[in-house]
Amino acid sequence: MPRRASWNSDAPNFMTAPRTVILPTETRTSIGPVLTLESLTAPAFRGFFENLGVGGVQISTDGRFLQVNQRFIELTGYPREQLLEMRVGDLDHPDDREPDRERWAAFLGDPEVGYDVEKRYIRRDGATIWVHVTAARIPMAGDEVTIAKTVEDVTERVVASHALREREQRLREALAVKEEFLGMVSHELRTPLTVILGLANVVARNGSSHEQVQRTVLEIRESAEHLASLLESMLVLARVGEEAPELEPILLDRVARRAIERHREVFPNRKISVDVSTDTPLVDGHEPWIVQVIANMLGNAEKYTPPKGRIFVLVERRDDDVCLRVLDEGRGIAEEDQPRIFEPFYRAAHAVKESGGLGLGLAVCKRLIDLQGGEVWAATRAEGGAEFGFSLPALDPDD
Ligand code: ADP
């Protein structure tokens, strides 16, 4: 068995069995003259050596170049004279030098060990190229041995195979994300659906009083609305690159009041303080989207604030924008979560433990506000709790 050990996953093994050196026994066959070691300096051999399609070098056992062919000169970019003053390791990429020194020592020290390596060279112009190098011992006159090497530029293949591997890795990651997402989505959709089915069964059973039926139907509606908003969020985020519909002049304070009213219907026990200035200028927007953003921010404030905590909604003009801020008295946002809070599927560790959710609500807010030319933000308030807000450019009254 040849001895093998790999170093670069897509590189050939460096300790292959040595190639058998086949030496011609005749200088002439019936077909034509044969190049032999004895005729090494003959013009015929020179021509043969110089015109090889791969780099060819002869090196001494102590690692000096004895001769190099034209292709090797082209490959490295160094002139012949300079190469003949260099040693084999001089061309190696600094990171490949140490492992290659070991391989080279193993090759020189043991006739049973071959040398078949993919590694990097630094060309004279500083560019890095990948080369496939093989070496063989050539017995010379007496007991002397010289080393013949072939050097092939395989940069294109290696770069392509690295790119392929990277793409595969990205694909694997994307598939893992997709699988995780599907798991989360099925779970999130199943919960309200199970509630709806259970409650519908209760209503279907005879014997419930009119009030019971009414109460149950309201609960069914609540779960159905939750389901609808989950689906809507996924649709918003799935429509990548979509353009905003025609925007219209909107009074943010009015839209805010409407969204707050809706929120109060679902969460009647929470105290929401509203400070909405009524003389803010118009903004360009798409009303259903703005309602959705406010609903998501209010929904989060509700979810992440203890029952006694208050929620504040403020609408005000700030320079050239009109902004809406939702403040709460919950735990605020940890520093490590801050940069990622608007990413799809991102949820803080406490949220994962303590409450349901897909981590889509804020990503939807960002997408919808971006599409309307505005900005979103999140901050922890100095007095505790979180602030979520967005701004839209104020319309010039002369427009
Ligand atoms: P979800 O609420 O489904 O997790 P969101 O996209 O709405 O998804 O929110 C992303 C994360 O941002 C939440 O998991 C939570 O960690 C954090 N977050 C959102 N709103 C608040 C808030 N008002 N207070 C504290 N943390 C919040």
* Sheet with most strands: strand arrangement: 2-1-5-4-3
Query: Which term fits the overall shape?
Result: elongated
Query: Hetero groups bound?
Result: adenosine-5'-diphosphate
Number of helices: 10
* Radius of gyration using CA atoms only: 37 Å
Give, in order, the helices and strands: HEEHHHEEEHHEHEEHEEHHEE
N-C termini distance: 84 Å
Ranges where pLDDT stays below 50 over 5 or more residues in a row are 1-14
Class of secondary structure makeup? alpha+beta
Mean pLDDT score = 86
Strand content: 15-25%
Main β sheet profile: 5 strands, antiparallel
Share of helical residues? 40-55%
Question: How many strand segments?
Answer: 12
What is the topological layout?
Layout: H1 43-50, E1 55-59, E2 65-68, H2 70-76, H3 80-83, H4 94-109, E3 115-122, E4 128-139, E5 145-153, H5 155-204, H6 210-238, E6 248-250, H7 252-266, E7 272-276, E8 283-285, H8 287-303, E9 311-318, E10 321-328, H9 349-354, H10 361-371, E11 375-380, E12 386-393
Parallel strand pairs: 7-9
Antiparallel strand pairs: 1-2, 1-5, 3-4, 4-5, 6-8, 9-10, 10-12, 11-12
Helix pairs in contact: 5-6, 6-10, 7-8, 8-10
Bound molecules: adenosine-5'-diphosphate.
Residues 300-301, 304, 328, 330-331, 333, 337, 341, 346-348, 351, 357-363, 386 line the site of adenosine-5'-diphosphate.
Would you mind describing this structure in some detail?
The chain has 399 residues and is of the alpha+beta class. The protein has 10 helices and 12 strands. It has helices at residues 43-50, 70-76, 80-83, 94-109, 155-204, 210-238, 252-266, 287-303, 349-354, 361-371; strands at residues 55-59, 65-68, 115-122, 128-139, 145-153, 248-250, 272-276, 283-285, 311-318, 321-328, 375-380, 386-393. The protein has a 5-stranded antiparallel beta sheet, with helices on both faces. Helix 8 runs antiparallel to helix 10. The longest helix has 50 residues, at 155-204. The structure holds adenosine-5'-diphosphate. Adenosine-5'-diphosphate binds at residues 300-301, 304, 328, 330-331, 333, 337, 341, 346-348, 351, 357-363, 386.
